[in-house]
């Protein structure tokens, strides 16, 4: 019997990753291109369709079951990306319709964090769980809720925006237009801002990051400095972990999950970030949830979860 394949697409603010996925959740092949290089949605969708056809042809796959797309502000009900703050093309983008017209196959779209959550449910640590929360940390901060074995889309299709819950009223400017969002403090950009602010408060600091210019700081560089025992980097992740742990504890009150899964590049800093997060989570968790919910890292490979999650959306019907 001929093996069945699907395509998973992760639309990020910087890059778009595309994978050819087998029925058992193996990424057979993958490709990517720069999202940020496009400001015209039609040219961008042309490139997506071209890459999908190329990856199919290169692997002698004539037919696919469909395409799943995880995208910022992706709406499962409408198939549109709605005013995503981290994409160069704004407005109401009819991505599902545009790609179906170009490829002639079914396309399913959802929020990128929702896609990651469903990927964890189908292929990862969420197998067998009916209730869990996925939190993604990267360019932004997203979340996806699985409740009673179903991915939650909400009334308008926009459920799962933990990153845009207000952490500090009147605080940092967020890319969504509001101030004080969790994303402004615990995303990769937020981590860099925290590091800059803490450095300004440490006039005698002479560590690894002392001579790194503000505009050259990245969460990866800060993570590498923390691994070397740098005081500033460690303080940065302690503060970030405190904020994210608090937010996760609050999120538990919405759905009483069995676990909170974490994924994303900044979390690769390891215990220096995760342990303060767990400590804050435990401190802020409502007592009725004690010993009922765990903080866990995604069990899917960091480079695979977004593509697998997008492909898994085809099973959420």
Rg over alpha carbons: 20 Å
Gross geometry = globular
Spans of 5+ residues with little confidence (pLDDT < 50)?
Answer: none
Instruction: Output the CATH homologous superfamily of the largest domain.
Output: ATPase, nucleotide binding domain
Overall SS class? alpha/beta
Which assembly state applies to the chains in this document? single chain
| CATH domain fold name of the largest domain | Nucleotidyltransferase, domain 5
Order of helices and strands: EEEHEEEEHEHEEEHHHHEHEH
- Give a quick account of the main beta sheet: strands, pairing sense, barrel closure: 5 strands, mixed
What does this structure look like?
By secondary structure, this protein is an alpha/beta fold. It folds into two domains: 5-119 and 304-315, Nucleotidyltransferase, domain 5, CATH 3.30.420; 129-297, ATPase, nucleotide binding domain (Nucleotidyltransferase, domain 5). 35% of the residues lie in helices and 20% in strands. It contains nine helices and 13 strands. The protein has helices at 41-58, 95-103, 112-123, 183-186, 188-200, 219-227, 231-255, 271-284, 305-312; strands at residues 5-11, 15-22, 27-34, 67-71, 74-75, 80-82, 92-93, 107-111, 132-137, 141-147, 150-151, 259-263, 294-297. A five-stranded mixed sheet has the order 3-2-1-4-8. Strands 11-10-9-12-13 form a five-stranded mixed sheet, sandwiched between helices. α3 crosses α9. The longest helix has 25 residues, at 231-255. The radius of gyration is 20 Å and the shape is globular. The relative contact order is 0.15. The mean pLDDT is 93.
């Amino acid at each position: 019997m001929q093996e069945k394949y699907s395509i998973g697409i992760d639309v990020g603010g910087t890059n778009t990753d595309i994978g050819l996925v087998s029925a058992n959740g193996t990424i057979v092949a993958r490709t990517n291109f720069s999202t940020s290089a496009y400001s015209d949605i039609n040219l961008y969708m042309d490139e997506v369709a071209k890459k999908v056809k190329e990856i199919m042809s290169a692997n002698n796959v004539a037919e696919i079951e469909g395409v799943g797309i995880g995208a910022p502000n992706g709406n499962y009900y409408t198939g549109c990306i709605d005013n995503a703050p981290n994409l160069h093309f704004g407005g109401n983008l009819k991505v599902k319709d545009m790609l179906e017209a170009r490829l002639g196959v079914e396309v399913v779209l959802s929020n990128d964090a929702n896609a990651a959550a469903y990927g964890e449910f189908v292929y990862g640590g969420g197998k067998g769980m009916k209730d869990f929360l996925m939190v993604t940390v990267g360019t932004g901060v997203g979340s996806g809720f699985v409740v009673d074995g179903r991915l939650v889309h909400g009334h308008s299709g926009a459920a799962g925006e933990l990153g845009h819950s207000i952490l500090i009223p009147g605080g940092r400017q967020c890319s969504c237009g509001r101030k004080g969002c969790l994303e402004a403090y615990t995303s990769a950009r937020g981590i860099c801002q925290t590091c800059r602010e803490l450095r300004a408060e440490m006039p005698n600091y002479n560590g690894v990051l002392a001579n790194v210019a503000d505009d050259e700081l990245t969460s990866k560089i800060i993570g590498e400095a923390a691994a070397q025992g740098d005081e500033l980097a460690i303080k940065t992740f302690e503060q970030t972990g405190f904020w994210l742990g608090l937010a996760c504890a609050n999120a538990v009150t919405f759905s009483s999950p069995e676990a909170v899964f974490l994924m994303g590049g900044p979390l690769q800093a390891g215990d220096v970030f995760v342990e303060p997060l767990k400590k804050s989570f435990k401190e802020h968790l409502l007592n009725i949830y004690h010993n009922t919910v765990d903080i866990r890292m995604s069990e899917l490979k960091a480079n695979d979860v977004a593509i697998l999650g997008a492909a898994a959306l085809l099973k959420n019907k």
